[in-house]
Amino acid sequence: PSYFRLTGGIERRLYELARKHCGRQPEWRVSLPRLAEKVGTTRTLRAFKHELKAIIERNTLPDYSLGLAMDPTGELERGMRADGYKLGPMSNDRVLAVFAPRAPALVDK
What we know:
The protein has helices at residues 9-22, 32-39, 45-58, 75-78; strands spanning 28-31, 64-70, 95-101. By secondary structure, the chain is an alpha+beta fold. The longest helix has 14 residues, at 9-22.
């Protein structure tokens, strides 16, 4: 029933993708360009990421949490590449969307 309360088309598609790909695993990580392709958006990656941030803030996806992660290798967290050069601004194609099932809420009886 919560699915039908989602107001945005992208939110509905994100829920469908999370439900399909999370399955029984603890999380599903997907690159921003690949997620944009799966959602079917024609927006730029920058605009798509901006919309994802708004969805994350609203926290309305039923049964799933959504977050953004940067650079799976951890090189960018240190501010240096592996070869010692400083890095410039983060490219949107290095962003990962992370979907995870939410723990079921405890219900008092």
